[in-house]
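step=encode ok
step=design start
structure_in=
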C-alpha cells in the first residue's frame, strides 16, 4: 500500500515538472520570436537609412542587432522602376522572422516613402 501511494506521488511530481518545463519553453519561444521580429524590423530600418543616403543602393548584407543576426537584402527598381524592395530575415536562436517592405524613391526630391511593410510567413 505504501509503495502504491509513493508511486502515485512520484508520478504526480513528474507530471508537474513536465508541465512546468513545457510552459517555460512556450514563454521562451514567444520571447525569441518577438526578438527575431524586432531584429528584422531593425534591418528594414537600417536599409531605409542606406537608401536615404544613396538613392541607388542595392545589395545584401548582415547586421548584428544586439546578439541577434539579421540578413538584409535590398533590390533597386523592383518590383517596378523607382522602387526598392527590402527583405530582412531576423534570427534569434531557433526562431526566424521575415519582414518585407517596398519603398518608393522620388528621384527629383529624394524623398523616400514606405509603401508597405509586412511580415512574411516562413
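sequence_out=
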Amino acid at each position: 500500500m505504501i509503495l502504491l501511494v509513493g508511486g502515485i506521488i512520484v508520478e504526480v511530481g513528474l507530471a508537474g515538472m513536465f508541465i512546468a518545463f513545457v510552459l517555460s519553453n512556450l514563454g521562451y519561444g514567444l520571447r525569441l520570436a518577438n526578438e527575431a521580429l524586432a531584429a528584422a524590423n531593425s534591418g528594414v530600418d537600417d536599409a531605409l537609412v542606406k537608401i536615404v543616403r544613396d538613392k541607388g543602393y542595392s545589395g545584401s548584407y548582415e547586421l548584428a542587432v544586439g546578439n541577434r543576426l539579421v540578413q538584409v537584402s535590398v533590390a533597386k527598381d523592383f518590383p517596378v522602376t523607382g522602387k526598392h524592395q527590402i527583405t530582412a530575415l531576423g534570427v534569434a536562436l531557433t526562431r526566424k522572422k521575415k519582414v518585407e517592405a517596398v519603398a518608393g524613391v522620388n528621384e527629383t526630391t529624394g524623398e523616400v516613402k514606405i509603401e508597405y511593410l509586412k511580415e512574411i510567413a516562413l
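step=design ok
step=annotate ok -> The CA atoms of residues 72 and 88 lie 4 Å apart.
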